[in-house]
Amino acid sequence: MTESLVQALVDMQESQALEEARHLLDGGADPLKILEACSVAMESVGKRFETGQYFLPHLMLAGEMLRQISEMVKPFIKKGQPQAGRGRVMIGTVEGDIHDIGKNMVVFLLEANGFQVFDIGVDQPAQKFVDAIQNLQPEVVGMSGLLTLAFESMKETVRAIEEAGLRDKVRIMIGGGVVTEKVKDYTGADAYAADAVAGVRLAKEWTGGGSAS
Ligand code: B12
């Protein structure tokens, strides 16, 4: 169902990709399936970049297409009011990394599920996470990173949270591109999530909010 969208994204056919996404949404497609298709397409775009078929401008266009599709999808994912007791989540992309499309998807899915979300942005040093935890007192902290070098920043951030005496006050989840269980162990985070839906599920578990919807 989403094959044409994936193909258009991979081929950098901007207007066709936007049309496909609009067509799918109007036809009643599950908005989460559309986001999933975007991730699948980005895998191929990434591979083409690695093999020298695509260059930085292609990555930029891919990012722009995804931003527009995310905006298009948003109204189709019901935005929930923060629900009492649902919990507070703080999230950011770690130092050295400016990728934020996946993080933004996590933010709006958490919000749609009633969480109060504080997004501290991209390329955030460890100390920014520590300061924000002190100020905002979230129960859950999310760290996003798509570059391999982000693993080091995540580890450093977890360490800084520990050193500030805040480690037992928060549960930490990490995610983004190539993040795996091994990366979770390396960084000292509590869990990793392969996609935004899994992230919401974790946040619900940790705040006693039941299973993901
Ligand atoms: C678009 C893109 C860009 C755009 C980003 C625009 C933006 N606003 O984000 C731009 C052009 C800026 C860019 C720049 C660069 N990029 Co880039 N980029 C991509 C690309 C093609 C897609 C990323 C994306 O948006 N994917 C779709 C989203 C939806 O997926 P996602 O982020 O993984 O998120 C999902 C889950 O992982 C999860 N998730 C994400 N975060 C979190 C957090 C939490 C807490 C949880 C629970 C879940 C979660 O939920 C999301 C939805 O389900 C990837 C290829 C790829 N395979 O991902 C390369 C890729 C990530 N980029 C890469 C590179 C090398 C770069 C540059 C260094 C290129 C350069 N020479 O300058 C720069 C780095 C700049 C920097 N310092 O960060 C490499 C990284 C290689 C590596 N292992 O380190 C990749 C993998 C391409 C490749 N195969 O070579 N990039």
Quick description:
The protein has 9 helices and 5 strands, in the order H-H-H-H-E-H-E-H-E-H-E-H-E-H. The protein has helices at 3-10, 14-26, 31-50, 56-73, 101-112, 126-136, 150-163, 181-187, 196-206, and strands at 88-93, 116-119, 140-144, 171-175, 191-193. The protein has a 5-stranded parallel β-sheet, sandwiched between helices.
Total helical elements = 9
Beta-sheet strand percentage? 5-15%
What proportion of the residues is helical, as a percent range? Answer: 40-55%
Structural class by SSE content = alpha/beta
Which distinct ligands sit in these coordinates?
A: cobalamin
Average pLDDT, all residues:
94
Defining traits:
binds cobalamin; 54% helix; 213 residues; alpha/beta; globular; five-stranded parallel β-sheet
Structure notes:
This protein has about 210 residues and is α/β, with parallel strands linked by helices. About 55% of the residues lie in helices and about 10% in strands. The chain has nine helices and five strands. The chain has helices at about 5-10, 15-25, 30-50, 55-75, 100-110, 125-135, 150-165, 180-185, 195-205, and strands at about 90-95, 115-120, 140-145, 170-175, 190-195. A five-stranded parallel β-sheet has the order 2-1-3-4-5, sandwiched between helices. β4 (about 170-175), α8 (about 180-185) and β5 form a beta-alpha-beta unit. α3 packs antiparallel against α4 (about 55-75) and α5 packs across α9 (about 195-205). The model has no long low-confidence stretch (mean pLDDT about 95). The protein binds cobalamin (B12). Cobalamin binds near residues 38, 97, 102, 173 and 196. Cobalamin binds near residues 38, 39, 46, 102 and 176.
